[in-house]
Design brief:
The model has no long low-confidence stretch (mean pLDDT about 95). Helices cover about 45% and strands about 15% of the residues. Helix 2 packs across helix 3. The structure holds adenosine monophosphate.
Length: about 220
Amino acid sequence: MCNIILLGPPGAGKGTLAKQLISVYNIPHISTGDMFREAIKDGTPLGRLAASYINEGHLVPDEVTISLVRERLSQKDCEHGYLLDGFPRTLPQAEALDTIGKDLKRPIRVVINITADEEELVRRISGRRVCRKCGTPYHIDTMRPKEEGVCDACGGEIYQRKDDTKESLLVRLNHYYADTKPLEDYYAKHGVLYEVDSTVGPKKSLKIAQKIIEGAKCD
Ligand code: AMP
C-alpha cells in the first residue's frame, strides 16, 4: 500500500477526502490537527501548548509537530501504508518527514495537492461544522446531518471549530501561502506531486484520487 500526503489550504477538502480514502484502502488517517484537538480536549501539556497557537490560526512549532508525527508513524499500524492529512505544512517538516520515512523504511510515494479557489475556501470554512467525537465534517448549507447537531456517523455532538472564524482563517491562509504552498515545488521535484481540484465535488475527487494512487509506484 501507499504512504500518502494530502496537501492543500484550509477548507480544500483534505478531511473529507481523507475519510473516504482510509475507508477504501484501510490505512490509518494521521491528522496532526485531530491529534492536537484530542490533546486539547484531554487537557494535556501538549494540548495547552497547541491551543495557544491553534486558536489564533498560527502553526504549532515544527519541533513539537515533527516529534508527534515521528512517534505516530513508528507505530505498527503504519507498516502497510498511512495517510497524512495536514502534515507537513512547512519545509522543515517536509525535510524531517523524508528522514523519518527513510529511518522507518516508510517513504512517501504520493502527494495529493487538493485545490479550490479562495472564495470557495472562505465559504466552506465559515459554514463548516465537525463532529467532536469522530471528526466527520459537515456544512451548514451543503452537508447537513440528518438530525440537527448530531453526527450521522457516530451520534457525537456537531460543533464549530474555534479556528473556523473569518479572522482565524485569514491568518491560516497567510501561513498556507508563506509556509505550505512552497511544498508543491518540493514534492514536484521529488516526482510525487499530483493534483485534485475539489470543486468537482467529493465523489469525483475520490475517483480521481483513487486513479492517482493506483497508478503510482507503491510497494
Ligand atoms: P487542521 O485540522 O489540519 O486544519 O489543523 C488545525 C490547526 O492545527 C492548524 O491551523 C495549526 O494551528 C495546527 N496544525 C495542524 N497541523 C499542523 C502542522 N503540520 N504544523 C503546525 N501546526 C499544525
